[in-house]
């Protein structure tokens, strides 16, 4: 693993320029919050980005980076990908269940490759009707 230290202004520019150069971003809460929002928009939606706040032992809080989105509850438009990928992070980093995490990540990739989209990614219409 290669470790690099960069200033936050350069990190924001590098994320826009070539996000594939990063595997992991480790930063303070303030900068992590800013960069996670930027990363979410690079993926196309806040609904795509999982989040993990870990302690030294690998235990922590796993949640969608965009929060729970109570404002869209019951409208059939929520994107569940970030929540599902947050479970994958929990399996991988707290429970050492890499095989289960890999399986979840493959399933998400297959669904997206097959064209399944929620409203935030596909536009108008209820969730489940985009393909």
Automatic annotation (TrEMBL):
Does Cytoplasm count among this protein's keywords?
yes
The highest taxon in the source lineage is Bacteria
Top EC class of this enzyme: oxidoreductase
What InterPro entries does its record include?
IsoCit/isopropylmalate_DH_CS (IPR019818), IsoPropMal-DH-like_dom (IPR024084), Isopropylmalate_DH (IPR004429)
Tell me the route in metabolism or biology where this protein functions: Amino-acid biosynthesis; L-leucine biosynthesis; L-leucine from 3-methyl-2-oxobutanoate: step 3/4
Q: Which cofactor does it need?
A: Mg(2+); Mn(2+)
A single GO cellular-component term from the record reads: cytosol
Catalytic activity, as annotated: (2R,3S)-3-isopropylmalate + NAD(+) = 4-methyl-2-oxopentanoate + CO2 + NADH
Quote the EC number.
1.1.1.85
**MF-aspect GO terms:** 3-isopropylmalate dehydrogenase activity; magnesium ion binding; NAD binding
Q: Does the keyword Lipid biosynthesis apply?
A: no
Annotated Isopropylmalate dehydrogenase-like domain ranges read: 1-125
User: What SMART domains would the database entry show?
Assistant: Iso_dh
GO biological process: what's one of them?
L-leucine biosynthetic process
SUPFAM superfamilies documented for this protein:
Isocitrate/Isopropylmalate dehydrogenase-like (SSF53659)
Write the record's keywords in alphabetical order, separated by commas: Amino-acid biosynthesis, Branched-chain amino acid biosynthesis, Cytoplasm, Leucine biosynthesis, Magnesium, Metal-binding, NAD, Oxidoreductase
Q: Which PANTHER family match?
A: 3-ISOPROPYLMALATE DEHYDROGENASE
Family from the record: Belongs to the isocitrate and isopropylmalate dehydrogenases family. LeuB type 1 subfamily.
Quaternary structure and interacting proteins, as annotated:
Homodimer.
What is this protein's record name?
3-isopropylmalate dehydrogenase
Lineage in the entry?
Bacteria, Pseudomonadati, Pseudomonadota, Gammaproteobacteria, Enterobacterales
């Amino acid at each position: 693993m290669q470790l690099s230290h960069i200033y936050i202004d350069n990190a924001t520019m590098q994320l826009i320029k070539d996000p594939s150069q990063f595997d992991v971003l480790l930063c303070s809460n303030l900068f992590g919050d800013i960069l996670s929002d930027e990363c979410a928009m690079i993926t196309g939606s806040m609904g795509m980005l999982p989040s993990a706040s870990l302690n030294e032992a690998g235990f922590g809080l796993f949640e969608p980076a965009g929060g729970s989105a109570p404002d869209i509850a019951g409208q059939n438009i929520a994107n569940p990908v970030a929540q599902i990928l947050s479970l994958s992070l929990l399996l991988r980093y707290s429970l050492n269940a890499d095989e289960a995490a890999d399986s979840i990540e493959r399933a998400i990739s297959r669904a997206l490759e097959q064209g399944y989209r929620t409203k935030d990614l596909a536009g108008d219409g209820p969730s489940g009707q985009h393909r």
